[in-house]
Amino acid sequence: MPTHSEDAELLGVASLVVCYGKFVNADKKITNELPNGRTQFAPTVHSHRIIKSLDFREKINLSLEYKKEYRIMADEILENEVAGNFIHDFIKEDIAEGGRFEGKEVHTRFPPEPNGYLHIGHAKAICIDFGTAERFGGKCNLRMDDTNPTKEDVEYVDAIKEDIAWLGFSWGDRFYFASQYFDKMYEFAIELIKKGLAYVCELSPEEMRENRGDLSHPAKSPYRDRPIEESLDLFERMKNGEFPDGKMTLRAKIDLTSGNFNMRDPVLYRINRIKHHRTGDKWCIYPMYDFAHPIEDALEGITHSLCSLEFEDHRPLYDWVINNISVPAKPRQIEFARLGINNTVMSKRKLRKLVEENYVNGWDDPRMPTLCGLRRRGYTPASIRNFCERIGVAKATSTVEYSFLEHCLREDLNETAQRTMAVLRPVKLIITNYPEDKTETFEVENNPNRPEDGTRTVTFSRELFIEQDDFMEEPVKGYFRMFPGNEVRLKTTYIVKCTGCKKDENGNVIEVYAEYDPETRGGNAPDGRKIKGTIHWVDAKTASTAEVRLYDNLFTVPDPDVGDKNFLDYLNPNSLEILTNCKVEPAMASAEAPKSYQFMRLGYFCVDKDSTPEKPVFNRSVSLKDSFKKK
Length: 631
Fold this sequence. Notes:
Elements: H1 4-14, E1 18-19, E2 22-24, E3 30-33, E4 39-41, E5 43-44, H2 56-63, H3 68-83, H4 86-95, E6 107-110, H5 120-135, E7 139-144, H6 154-166, E8 175-177, H7 182-194, E9 198-201, H8 205-210, H9 228-239, E10 249-252, E11 267-271, E12 285-287, H10 289-299, E13 304-308, H11 315-324, E14 332-336, E15 339-341, H12 348-356, H13 371-377, H14 381-391, E16 398-400, H15 402-416, E17 418-420, E18 422-423, E19 426-431, E20 439-445, E21 455-461, E22 463-467, E23 487-490, E24 495-503, E25 509-516, E26 534-535, E27 538-539, E28 544-551, E29 576-584, E30 596-599, E31 603-607, E32 617-623
Parallel strand pairs: 6-7, 7-8, 13-14, 15-16, 17-30, 19-25, 23-26, 28-32
Antiparallel strand pairs: 1-2, 2-5, 3-4, 9-10, 10-11, 11-12, 18-29, 19-22, 20-21, 22-27, 23-24, 24-25, 28-29, 30-31, 31-32
Helix pairs in contact: 2-3, 5-14, 10-11, 14-15
């Protein structure tokens, strides 16, 4: 039998097990029924760490023999963990005995273009690239693909690094730029020319398109048989700036009859006199991505180059480049389907249009699908990683409901967010039989799911604020909140009975009146009478006034950019509602961004970066109601 300390240590290990985004906290009570009648521990989303130790099962079995439940939990999680996905299957084959990477460390990379902010689609790729390396005990590089000098911006580089670190991934000291390999790329291009595998072509882009051919006719280039020495001379002169932009290109000499048009002598270099953000004016020729990408991977010792599905047809060219130049490694490219998600757009061009034409308030507008926008909205790293794990990795393109992303956030914040009371559309409630000079205090739990988070003190007095829709002078059927003659429970405090209201000259209710039952302190009736309605409130004496921003979908249709649609025609005019007279507990005035809270009965909200103690500002992250339908 293990000692108490050993047992506690191993339970701590078990509590950090994660499989496909379902986190298991092993020190909680057993609550979930399994189909075979057994039970397992309730899933939570606290843990961010993955247990990858090969002897984990053995440790659990040896040290917790008397705790069968823990062994069952470990077995089931490890069985699912082993299942993996098709990328993991390929990698297992590659690193197994006799595989192409036998004995090598799994090495991946994430290579974004620094020409925009990362969005939720990139998060999937980040989780695949970094997560795959983590799973196999390997490493993942972060590389900026800055081969195109017309689009790069240092602002984007910094934002990309911030987003990846926020998600909880680390590239260590392995941060690179494609541009740092420009000299080597030029050398490899010369190597191809000398081997008779590349030539300088003088066809203009229009002429190249005209001579591309079709499935029945080969492509053409009158320069394909240009002598090697002549191509070497022209290529050097291209580099030296002797020709205008677009005058010449360097093309690979592969197969003009190929059914894969990417192999019909693709362009490797083009002339482009644009100042590069890192290399300045050193270069006036720049490599194409299909040439640069495999070279970068090979020079960094990448074993598995994980790409989105649109690069599947480019894989033969990737392999051709690797196999025909003197690089130190031969990576394997594997493709997976991109993330498709409804109710938004993820084209960088379209997102840039939204920002630059002021349809939204910047890249971090909480309505945007960018990671900085989601972060400002209140999304957590755990919720996004959980989402990416649970949608899985596939070869077929599919679309995920945006509501499932919200579902993952709701799951996380339900466990972690502190509760507080806030009134968004306030009306004053006056308890007429409560002493005017009296104030009481009550202890309210911060999070019922985390007793260790303790309690907070709230004040209660004669005048309170409640939600306008928590009072109805003439109630509809099934309405159990406040109306004349009805009793409701004020959260944690007393049962009160509504006695009437006061209206202004326009018929709007400006005050609600009630009487409290002093014998019901804590909210329970000594005589056992049932109270169907419980509402939240804020003490008018101590409440702080806050601004609350209510965000909704940016578009009115699930697929705003499908087919011939102009996505701007489907912008939702009600995607943002700003409330400026909300009442919150006084401690909320000093809350700091980006902390999240559950506004009781209303939803999950986070502190916005615009918030100050004098003017607190909160963003609605997600409502309490879960619109995602569990299958």
